[in-house]
Amino acid sequence: xxxxxxxxxxxxxxxxxxxxxPPQQVGFLTPLYKRVTKPMKTMPFxxxxxxxxxxxxxLYVVFGxxxxxLVSLLQRGI
Amino acid sequence: MWASILSSGIQFxxxxxxCVVRPYQTYREIRHGVTMWEIGxxxxxxxxxxxxxxxxxxxxxxxxxxxxxxxxxxxxxxxTSVSVVTxxxxxxxxIGKPVRVDRLATMxxxxxxxxxxxxxxxxxxxxxxxPPRSETVLGISLSMVYLVATLxxxxxxxxxxxxxxxxxxxxxxxxxxxxxxxxxxxxxVLSVLLYRLGIFGVPFL
Lengths: 78, 205
Fold this sequence. Notes:
The complex is a heterodimer.
Chain A: H1 6-20, H2 30-41, H3 45-63, H4 67-76
Chain B: H1 2-21, H2 23-31, H3 38-58, H4 63-95, H5 101-110, H6 112-128, H7 137-169, H8 173-196
Helix pairs in contact in B: 1-2, 2-7, 3-4, 3-5, 3-6, 4-5, 5-7, 6-7
């Protein structure tokens, strides 16, 4: 009697899910793309926080204390 | 039926947490199925958001004013969401491998989570430290903290938008960038329209 292995079935289902959309290829930039997207797949917030802090730091260097005006504008937007 | 509603609620909770801790895996799961009532929870989430925004915008608890503001927001956002999902679905049908429209709408609905989180944070900060921000050390420090948090939510929303197009429409990076640039004029017109109608408070342009 043939029995279906549940682990194999689970693996097969998962495999079909993964290969349904082909992996992203961006030519010679593919290794870089994979390196950049890897931390975004699971708990992306630490990397998003670092990126945001860098952007805000740059904004402060460029605009100085005038960034307070931008914040007032955004806070009035709700 | 009640069991179905309850299980959809649990599914919605799991996937909302999944959007935070495992966004790729969560969107891949949504591609392969949504429970019957899950989209209903997404709609409730949107309604809660509009209710909170209505209270924030009118600064009053008068039911008549709140209802007017609520209806205006709900109609404006519903028209926008339906238009965007419809356009994306037809684009996907032409050049991608789209999922069923209810799954695409659910994916789009989950992109509201960062917006809701941003709204709650902004409302809390407005309540605790009312604007305008001063150009003192404390004011600038608060401004920087606020901007960092805003950008984190913005990038998170960007990621969920990317995943909607990736898993909802089966697009690759080139198509996602192309479609996003192609739809930019439409988003700009919608933003101006919604700003004129008083639905958006921030002039994005």
